[in-house]
Amino acid sequence: MDIEIWTKRHFTAKSKIEWNCPNCGNNTLQLVSEDFKSEETVPSKDYRAKNDDWEIEWISLTFNGRLKCKTCSENVFFTGIGNPEHSGYYDYELDDYHEEYTNTFTPTFFQPTINIFNIPKKCPDTVKEQIWDSFKLFWCDLSSCANKIRIALEVLLNEEKVKRFEVVSGKRKPISLHRRIQSYSNIEVRDLFLAIKWIGNTGSHTGEVETIDIIETYKLLEYSLKKLYTNEEEEIKKITKEINKRKGTRKRK
């Protein structure tokens, strides 16, 4: 998972698209220029008409378009918002200042959903569904996205058979997520889960989360799921042991 790619949420009509195809997972999506449309919003037009101090950067745009994968031909439809951004520069050779504006766009919805990271195949479907829902929210509501990641963590603990309830004074009461994590037997991912929970709490209670906070949380979640649902580490150990034992290439079947 490349953090830099996902922190760049905006693009221009000439940008190289770096988001992964939701079907094949390859970084081969391309903007279909003839299907890309953008328009200034009505409130933006009204404000421009009524204010003498109006500036071009205040224009608000909406867009819709289509991305097509070069590898598998999957189509991804998306929509979002935009505005002109100033990109002027001074040409010292001509002793002149060039003022330019480029429309910059930020997606708010994709269909099918773009996967921020690849979820292991062995990950339970109940957990996958919550993570996919969080991917949808990543583009339009970071606080809700953080909350959905927290829910995914709760469902993950359910799948791992971590105790959910306790009896207190004869009454059945839910155990807090924090205490459930602390009781989790897998020490390798316990601290990762706690960090994920803190960001989920922040998004749920204060809403004060930024793109980088969510991306780093996804990084932790991705690593946790690999630890739980892939055999990559065991395979690496096996390969290393066999090569060292033979002092050369491994025996093939």
UniProtKB/TrEMBL annotation:
Pfam families: DUF4145
DUF4145 domain: residues covered: 136-221
InterPro entries per the UniProt record, alphabetical: DUF4145 (IPR025285)
Name of protein: DUF4145 domain-containing protein
Species: Corallibacter vietnamensis
